[in-house]
Design the sequence.
């Protein structure tokens, strides 16, 4: 692909998701990965080399080299690095969750404008679902069931440390499920009720279930399961049909309205997120990123208090 070079991209944190970002950015006309930093210089060097970029020492060097900075680092570091990047006047894409606490989200919100990496909205089947919903009448029941192999043996240790991860599966993938429910049902969360499961030897939850009470009166029931088997299905029963979203597409009453290649679609969702940023189209806002983090904390408080709804 011969690319025009309108925007220079820098990545801080060259771990798992950074490879996805770099692969997606390589497909975007007008975007060029120029700099990669990581606390571990070898990791930065490997990713930079793969994409013809420069491995640099840290955020300051990335800020000097790039117009758009992606922060794909462990959750607790999002706030500090985002504040520095926003302060330097760069476009910033902070990976989800926006931060580990609502207070940190509020400080980031006060600092200025940036994007939150809730790229799940850019799956073609989720976009198709939003269009189908317009035709199906009032959503009567929303349920999502998804897994992640939270305790997989090669999971980096910080995911088990509440001081760094801010929580467990709800912080890691629950924010995606919350964002999807709010985006499809059209309102932010008002309250959350739920349960979390913290297995022996763990300090964070590895499975959770939550009911979101949205500001427009709609509800969403989410189940997050720690499992080596991957599943992810959203079902929305509406007045005039039942919509399902899964990794391979979107269906109405069992009829496929859109089929996608699940693996490819994941990287494509990152590409579409970059394209939206370049065009100035909507990407998850800091307020929406904060809503998801606040909902996770409301879930934790509800679970600790016996499962009663807690205002987020
Ligand atoms: N949007 C998505 O679908 C998606 C998917 C996976 C991960 N993520 C998010 O991306 C972020 C990173 O997750 P990951 O799975 O890539 O983690 P990871 O552990 O694989 O990678 C994190 C990298 O950051 C580096 N690092 C740690 N602290 C640093 C610091 N202060 N400065 C510079 N580098 C530092 C580590 O050395 C590591 O290479 C998390 O916020 C995670 O929730 C998002």
Sequence:
């Amino acid at each position: 692909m011969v690319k025009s070079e309108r925007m220079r991209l820098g990545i801080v944190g060259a771990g798992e998701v950074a490879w996805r970002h770099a692969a997606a950015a390589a497909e975007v006309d007008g975007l060029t990965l120029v700099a990669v930093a990581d606390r571990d210089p070898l990791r930065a060097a490997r990713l930079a080399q793969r994409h013809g970029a420069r491995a640099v020492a840290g955020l300051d060097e990335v800020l000097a080299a790039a117009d758009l900075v992606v922060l794909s680092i462990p959750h607790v570091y999002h706030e500090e690095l985002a504040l520095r990047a926003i302060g330097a006047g760069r476009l910033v894409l902070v990976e989800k969750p926006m931060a580990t606490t609502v207070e940190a989200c509020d400080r980031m919100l006060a600092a200025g404008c940036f994007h939150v990496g809730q790229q799940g909205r850019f799956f073609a089947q989720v976009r198709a679902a939003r269009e189908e919903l317009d035709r199906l009448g009032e959503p009567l029941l929303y349920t999502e069931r998804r897994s992640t192999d939270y305790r997989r043996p090669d999971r980096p240790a910080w995911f088990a440390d509440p001081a760094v991860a801010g929580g467990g599966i709800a912080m890691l993938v629950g924010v995606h499920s919350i964002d999807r429910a709010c985006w499809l049902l059209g309102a932010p969360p008002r309250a959350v009720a739920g349960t979390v499961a913290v297995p022996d030897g763990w300090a964070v939850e590895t499975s959770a279930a939550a009911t979101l009470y949205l500001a427009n009166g709609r509800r969403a029931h989410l189940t997050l399961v720690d499992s080596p088997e991957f599943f992810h299905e959203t079902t929305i029963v509406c007045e005039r049909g039942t919509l399902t979203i899964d990794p391979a597409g979107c269906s109405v009453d069992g009829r496929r309205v859109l089929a996608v290649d699940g693996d490819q679609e994941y990287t494509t969702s990152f590409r579409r997120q970059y394209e939206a940023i370049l065009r100035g189209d909507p990407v998850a806002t800091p307020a929406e990123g904060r809503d998801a983090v606040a909902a996770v904390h409301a879930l934790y408080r509800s679970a600790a208090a016996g499962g009663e709804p807690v205002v987020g």
